[in-house]
Structures
1.
Amino acid sequence: MGSSPELLRVEELTKIFKNGAESKTVLERVSFSLGQKDSLAVVGPSGCGKTTLLLIVAGLIPPTCGSASLDGETVTGPTRKVALVLQHYGLFPWKTVGANILLGAQLQNIQVPREELAGLKRELGIEALDHLYPDQVSGGQRQRVALARALLLRPSLLLLDEPFAAIDALTRERLQDHLITIFRQRGFSFIIVTHNIEEAIFLGRKIIVLNDVKPGVRTLLENPAAGTPGYRNRPEFFQRSLQLRNILEDIE
């Protein structure tokens, strides 16, 4: 795949959390870039700063030093260009599925045409769930509801924090395929944090491995075949999976 115009640049990003006299460095001098209509998977041991990285890129917490810039502008707070889907989806249990889907757009005063809303629900296979509540639908359906809410914001960059972690393996693969389909149709970029090696290989055209012993980027892998039809069954996929597994085992 050829290079695409740059969307996101992270430079020398460091985050230190302080608690009284104690401090903990979770990210140190992390640098990478992401093009438009591109994808990145972030993997690494628990506590290595994966979610912290997403929160900084989303503008929800500030870096200690370094910067993240989107379309050439430094990220200093939340922006409509970025949408975040958290691991537990952030759905309000007292609101119906239909109300949950529209909530983000309503909070940002985005007018959503009826045809666009109906089309997105069809794309995600959740058009019949409006009247139900989150605890009445499956984990996979809740994930698609959260994804619909994020996509209604029309982001340039979608951030996903282990969105498929609580879903069975076959459903997980179907949702990965669905994400790739929508990614191609809608032309956004995405970053996914995951502990799952095969998920990282299938979804990330770039893969960053973060280190918890020496905080920062351990390895950056290029994976241009990510998301292509049949990739999971190719020898290249298994070779990449083995390579990534060996890197992670070396850290741990």
Note: The first strand starts at residue 6 and ends at 19.
2.
Amino acid sequence: MKINQFSEQIYDQEDLINLVMAGHDVNQYPDMLVNHTVDLETAALILEHVPTFVRYDEAARDSMTQEQFDRRCQSRWYMPQEYQGLDIAAHVLSLCQTDQELQRAGQELLLFQERDLFNLLRYLKFLVDVLRANRCIWGVGRGSSVASYVLYLLGVHRINSLYYDLDPQEFLR
């Protein structure tokens, strides 16, 4: 197995055989990156049918910038349809109770929108809902993320940045 500059695992034919022999169902990993030199016809004989691997083209991937890689990854997050279509701005604003909260949330939402991060907010809403539904415990909050009132409203952390007068620019640097 090879690791590229983005820390993605690239599997070759021997890796696939080893996974199958160890009892792993490689067909459960549709986004598995497989080296472009792997002969999928031979792999089909070994794996019984051709999985839906993503072919890894080293030359194309190596020319990708970090920003392009991040955009590609963000577009492939698993998120149920109900969250993908969620008007996250309206949802966040509906959680506000005072004019001061509305103003702060609106200001932060504009910053998130400028950075094209609404999908991230949708995913965080989904993640927090899953954590709550499964009665998981997560931290109170740490680092610069606690400066975001929007993340507080979504339940990502429990530090009210309005109460402590934390600057949202600290988070979105």
Note: Residues 81-170 form one domain.
